[in-house]
Structure formats: C-alpha cells, structure tokens
Amino acid sequence: MIKKLLLATAATALVATAASAADLPRRAAPPPVFTPVPVFTWTGFYGGLETAYTFTDSQRITTVGISPVNAANVATGARPAATRISDDGFANIGGTAGYNYQFTPGSGIVVGIANSIDWTDLAKNRAYLGSTGALSSFRQGTDWVGTLVGRVGYAFDRVMVYGLGGLAYGNVFYDANFFAPNGRLAFAGRHDDFETGFAYGGGIEFALPTDSFLNTFAVGRYLGLKYDALTVKAEYVHYDLGSRNVLVGAIPGVGVGSGYISRFRTEGSIVRAGFNYKFGGL
User: What is the rounded average pLDDT for all residues in the chain?
Assistant: First the structure.
C-alpha cells in the first residue's frame, strides 16, 4: 500500500513538472540583424582640380578709320575692314569649388553653385598685307577664364547630369599695329584688362564607390584629408567675354590722320575633365 502511494505521488509530481515546463517561453535563435545600406547624396561642399581644352570661335576683328584719310584706307583695302582670329590649346591646370543640395537622397533633383578658374594662356597673331603694301598685324589672347555658375541637375544615385549657366570672367589682351609701306610702325593700340560676360553648358559627374580601386589614386587620402566621396567629371562650357574697342593711334611723325578703332571680340568653348573631393553638407 505504501509502495503504491509513493508511485502515485511521484507520477503526480512528474506531471506537474511537465506542465510547468510547458508554460515557460521557448528558446529561439535571435532574429538576424540587417544593416541598412547608406543612401548616397550629392549634398555638400566640394573642391578639386581639372584640366581643360579651350578653343575659340572665329573671333571677329573689325576696323574703322577715325579721320577721312584713315576711313579711305579701310575702304580701299589698305587696312583690313574685318578679319578673324581662332586659337585652341590645353589649359595647364584649373580648379573648382562649390556646393550642391539634393532634395531627395538616392535619385532626385540637385541644385548648386560652382566657381571654376582655368589658366588658358591662349594667344594668336593675324597679319594682313594691304593694297598699298602696308602691313597690319593683330594679336589677341586670353590668359585665363573663370566661370561662376548655377547648376541644376538630376542624380541617378552616384551619377549626375546637369546644366549650368551664369557669369564668365577672365583676363584678355588685344594688340593692333599698323605699319607704313616702308616698314615703320605708323599706328599702334593695346588693351590688357579684366573682362566679364556670360557662360552656359552642361556636364556629367560620377561619385566613385568607396571600394573602387580608383580611390587609391586620390592624393587627399594620403594627406589626411577627410572627405565623403571622390567624384570625376566631364563638362562643356561656352563663354563670351564680349567686345572691346581699341584705339589704334597715330605714331607722331609717321602715321597720317587721327588713327583707327579696332573692335575685338572674345568668345570660345572649354571642355573640362577633373575630379572633386566631396565633403559634408551644412
């Protein structure tokens, strides 16, 4: 009897223990942790270096005579009524700096402002042999060209296409020298100064992924420069620095009459390629 009672008590205790264990929470593996991939944004300051190929349109030079004798020389072809100068070349180096703001990270509209300066060092001579055998020579050049423009574009993640437009500025110089038939300098004029105008164009820019091998060529990383991304760009810009009258005055004792006025015009195109370091936004 006692043995049966002990067995019944043990069975009851085992059932109660099993029931209590069933009420305990089950042990399960922790859910996987997903780290969200950061969404790229073009918002932020940037600055970098560039090189450029610059080519001028057929820049027109027109000349009129001030006094009747000078006007007659232009009319008869002794002095050129009009001529053109074109030039092209690679800029040695240039730089840019600006700020972008992207309305929606990832893909979306981007607006910004950029200031770029390129050392063009363009210069070209033009000679004209008149009907009387007198030589007329012109020289036109552009030392450097800068653009301060607004940019509006659309970003497809790390690729952005954009248009630009705004102010163009630079240093230009114009020379005009008219010689007498005997080879002596008879008239001379010169202008060398800062000029302003307008610019417009467009381009494309690509932000390199952080694991791209091209980042190994970013000099800034070895100098301790802290930046968010390295971008590469290509863009086209047309600039127009306007026109300027140059007084080609008579050399006393050689030139006859009051002289001439030669009007020079400077405009051209720049194809830029370069890289920028992108920094954080405001």
Answer: 86
According to the model, what pLDDT value does residue 167 have? Answer: 98
Residue 139 CB coordination number (10 Å) = 17
SS3 38: coil
Where residue 180 falls among pLDDT bands split at 50, 70, 90? very high
Which tens digit of pLDDT belongs to each residue from 107-144? 999 999 999 999 988 899 999 999 999 999 999 999 99
Q: For residue 157, is pLDDT > 80?
A: yes
Question: What are the CA-CA distances from residue 123 to residues 155, 174, 218 (Å)?
Answer: 38, 10, 34
Q: Is-contact 246 215, C-beta < 8 A?
A: no
The predicted model scores a pTM of: 0.81
> What distance in Å separates the CA atoms of residue 251 and residue 72, rounded to the nearest whole number?
18
